[in-house]
Amino acid sequence: MATPYSTGMAHTPTAPARRHSAWIRWGRLAVSIALLALLVTRIEPDQLVPPNRSLPGTLFFLCTGLLLMALSFVVASWRWQRVLAVYDQAIPLRTLLKHYLAGQFVGNAMPSTVGGDVLRISRCSKDTGSTEIAFASVVIERLTGFVALPLLIFVGFAARPDLLGAGRSWLAIATAVASLLVLGLILLLAASPQLAGRYVHRANWTRYFGIVHVGIDRLRRDPRDASAALGAAVAYQLTVVAAVYCAVHTIGLTIPNGAVLAFIPAVAIVQVIPISVGGLGVREGMLVLLLHPLGVPTGQAVAVGLLWYAMTLLVSLAGAPAFAIGHHGKHRHVTASADGS
Questions:
Q1: What sign does the CA torsion over 104, 105, 107, 113 have?
Q2: Could you tell me the residue ranges of all domains in the chain?
Q3: pTM
Q4: What is the tens place of the pLDDT at every residue in 313-323?
Q5: What letter would DSSP give residue 287?
Q6: How far apart are CA 106 and CA 110, in angstroms?
Q7: Which residues lie below 8 Å from residue 185, measured CB to CB, with a gap of 6+?
Q8: Residue 126: which of 328, 287, 340 has the closest Cα?
Q9: How far is CA 192 from CA 198, 217, 318, in A?
């Protein structure tokens, strides 16, 4: 019988499950194609790139954006490390970076039904000796982003209050508020001893709820751990925003810096909705909606979104060796206790 924090058994997907995954994959691809096709019909070719672009300046922003995107992967791994520390797991940053790169490669560069997060959980479980802790660390790491992103949106509007008068700025604010409401509901359920906490000692699949509860409870009790995790989350999102800022200038757009800080995090929130492939179409459509009132033509807004995706994809290719080599980590002694102490 499995214990609450033992390494879980891997299950081979059944034929119906594989068919269901295939339908989901093709459905997301159809959504991306449909949205991109709709956007392309609204693009005027002569507005794709502003005239009189400086080649050195373009290359500078492009290369800087790629470097910042690569740095964001390192910072994301550090964020993951800070969350694992909540479970008393001291895993080297280099190891987590390899897992993160492999996960990004699978998620962005391979037409696979196995998401990058699933791969990260699988490989991290070999380091922690617990599939449950690996699962909870990835879940909580993702949740920290939904604190950092709305925060950056509000900071952007605070820096440029005049953006509130932009025609569709309410979309960014509504996205931030909705994100916080969903996050608040998740945390309410996860932190409750009567709800998620009741599954801490279970031996079946519900134990995953229990270990998430342990992590949330520890963060609530220890402000230092919480501050470290949230600080790393803000640093990660700022690095991504800086990379997209470079994409904006690579295309040659002239928009307020506050608009980048207020709108890009909103796009980052919306693009993770699992209805498309890699956010394709959703990301570009959101950019068009938010940037058009600032005088940005549809073609240039779409170009920013595609360049954002291309930079992420290109950096993700660095994870190919880590994915191909695999991971045979040593099981570590698990010290997370059922009561969260």
A1: negative
A2: 15-43+53-325
A3: 0.85
A4: 999 999 899 88
A5: H
A6: 5
A7: none
A8: 328
A9: 9, 9, 40
